[in-house]
């Protein structure tokens, strides 16, 4: 559905569910797209052999990819774990590094894991009604820690920002979110090294 550039428009978000009433792009990331992202590779392969389940979905409205536009949509991260590590999104930097993003949590519980190329990191809890601002230069990844419920967020970012998934695919994040004694816990990634040492 193409939207006229110079006219306002509206869309609704269905809850529960999280889909936009009008959208142009629907992305479904399956378990097979996440090879190498989870620490427990053996358990990952066992789960994948049983079923290539969907981990998360993204619904977006098409807008021009220019600096005056705001790209936006919803993300639905399903519940589950690979071993003791909660389901997560791939995570990304923006291709234009100095661009920010805003998330508004509509449903569920989770964490946003964030980091900079220089080594700073942060983890913020996600819960309904919470607004998270991801500053320019920070990679970010959603993690669903909410038991049986989907984690649903509404996101907005500059039209020219783009996505850089490659840096995360090759390097990973410094922190992981795992279940310990029935609760989420942030732990170090064993193999992390600063980008300048690559």
CATH C-level name:
Mainly Beta
Q: Helicity range of the residues?
A: under 10%
Helix-strand sequence: EHEEEEEEEEEEHEE
What is the CATH topology descriptor? Jelly Rolls
Write down the Rg: 17 Å
Shape: globular
CATH superfamily: Jelly Rolls
Task: Tell me briefly what this model is.
The protein has helices spanning 41-50, 166-171; strands at residues 25-30, 54-60, 70-77, 81-82, 85-86, 101-107, 110-115, 121-126, 131-134, 139-144, 151-158, 175-180, 183-188.
Q: How does this structure look, described?
A:
This protein has one domain: Jelly Rolls, CATH 2.60.120. A six-stranded antiparallel β-sheet has the order 1-2-3-11-6-9, with no helix packed on it. The chain contains two helices and 13 strands; from the N terminus they run βαββββββββββαββ. With 198 residues, it is mainly beta. The longest helix is centred in the first third of the chain and has 10 residues, at 41-50.
